[in-house]
Amino acid sequence: MATKYIFFTGGVVSSVGKGVTAAALGRLLKERGFAVAVQKLDPYINVDPGTMSPYQHGEVYVLDDGAETDLDLGHYERFIDVSLNRVCNITTGQVYAEVIAKERRGDYLGGTIQVIPHITNEIKRRIGLVAKATGAEIVLVEVGGTVGDIESLPFLEALRQMRSDVGRENTLNIHVTWLPHIGATNELKTKPTQHSVSELRAIGIAPNMIVARSDYPIADELRAKIALFCDVEERAVVPMVTTPVLYEVPLLLERAGVGDYVLQKLGLEARRRPDWSEWERLVADVRRSKPKVKIALVGKYVELHDAYMSVREALHHAGMAAGVDVEIGWVHSAELERNRGWDIVRQADGVLVPGGFGSRGIEGKIQAVRYARENKIPYLGLCLGMQLMVVEFTRSVLGCEDANSTEFDHSTSCPVIDLMPDQRGISDMGGTMRLGLYPCELQEGSHAASAYQKPLVEERHRHRFELNNTYRETLQAKGMRFSGISPDGRLVEIAELADHPFMVGTQFHPEFLSRPNRPHPIFVAFVRAVAERAGRN
Ligand code: GLN
Prior knowledge:
Blueprint: E1 4-10, H1 18-31, E2 36-42, H2 54-57, E3 61-62, E4 68-69, H3 72-80, E5 89-91, H4 92-105, H5 115-134, E6 138-143, H6 153-166, E7 171-178, E8 181-182, E9 187-188, H7 191-203, E10 209-214, H8 220-230, E11 237-241, H9 249-255, H10 258-265, H11 277-287, E12 292-299, H12 309-322, E13 325-332, H13 333-337, H14 342-347, E14 350-353, H15 362-374, E15 379-382, H16 384-396, E16 404-405, E17 415-418, E18 434-442, H17 447-452, E19 456-463, E20 466-467, H18 472-477, E21 480-485, E22 492-497, E23 503-506, H19 521-536
Parallel strand pairs: 1-6, 1-7, 2-5, 2-6, 7-10, 10-11, 12-13, 12-14, 14-15, 15-23, 16-17
Antiparallel strand pairs: 3-4, 8-9, 17-20, 18-19, 18-21, 21-22, 22-23
Helix pairs in contact: 1-3, 1-9, 4-5, 5-6, 12-19, 15-16
């Protein structure tokens, strides 16, 4: 069959869940037997979000192939349970970099390079790559930002052109908007939706479906009104009221008839009946009241929870498996240094230090690690959290008081976390980064091995520094166990303490492989240890 394309645009305001809607629709189509992939088009000029502050952008989500991508890719992978690859996230920066490189090579000799057709052609070329790279039969394409933004115009123009390139019958436009609520009169307003649809039409794109997001119930008359003013069928206006349970969105779309409608419009027949029993169980499980456990997440971007999106999701997936409700206590590590925020750490039954870069708040994180080690509180360290677990141990147990990672202190007398010798001298940011899937062998009898229940695993990485091998033996002699090692023996992937209920650090990011229906074994083992401690208190 010809590849089908579903284009998602956003109207009125951003952050209303366009990514989740696209991810959920992907699931509906997968449930009907189709191979699906989702691609995000990001209008910013950075080549990828890797160098952007999490405050600006939220988490950087890493794929199997090492691509550093938008956090929406995390939603896509979690909802659809597919592994995407680097063609699934395009930025304006990548598109221009490619076109300018070609221009310098002389590929367009004699030509004037313009947004139309050169930039739009490159965008279309990259959209076309998704089906080939992933084997998808239906490609969902989400445009970042909202209609009306200057920087998304070339993307929208490319989508407009694609409708004729691949055939109108093979494409569908879905516009996700927001209905503001006026408190004084207690009514929802459709005017901003009407405006954003007319703006979309001015660009040459007519929506086939409108997903109307709101915090309040949407009456049928309002649906009819949106249909009338925006020229879409009434059954193609999908009311989507905010739900506290993210994983309920596919069920809501299914109930609204979206899956069947979309297939019909694309001229497709479902290959099988969707089976929602697992999702329904999942959602019921989330809603069921369970004993609460508290985990202190000690990070430096804690004001913006999106910066730890996958960690938060992985904790909740693991909570479901362990039969507990994980409540996250957000702790700013720099606050701990000023003796503030410790009450949250003390009330918690587990401590988690996630990944991070840069020296702000490092000492606060080390203090949190020490607290967890000394008080035998279950601890999970992710990437930087693993490195600091090793630093703290070297300081307190090996007695090297200024031990550190050379990322934070070049002149430390114990550089227990360091660059590998072959990485030195590379200055391009990202050039030395270990990114993507790497294998890891587990040591029998360890926490890690008993969590995974298999001898060899592959996990996603995003870091520059590694455990310094010259310290391995000394650390081991004092009770640190290297329970995960790269198959060539060169790199420590997991460190844990033998003499502790659960103190595990992973050099990789297990959170990126946790799925609601397949919680990550390391997170499950951690949350079980936390629940056990909470039960004893
Ligand atoms: N900053 C550390 C490194 O580069 C850890 C990175 C991370 O936590 N993702 O190795």
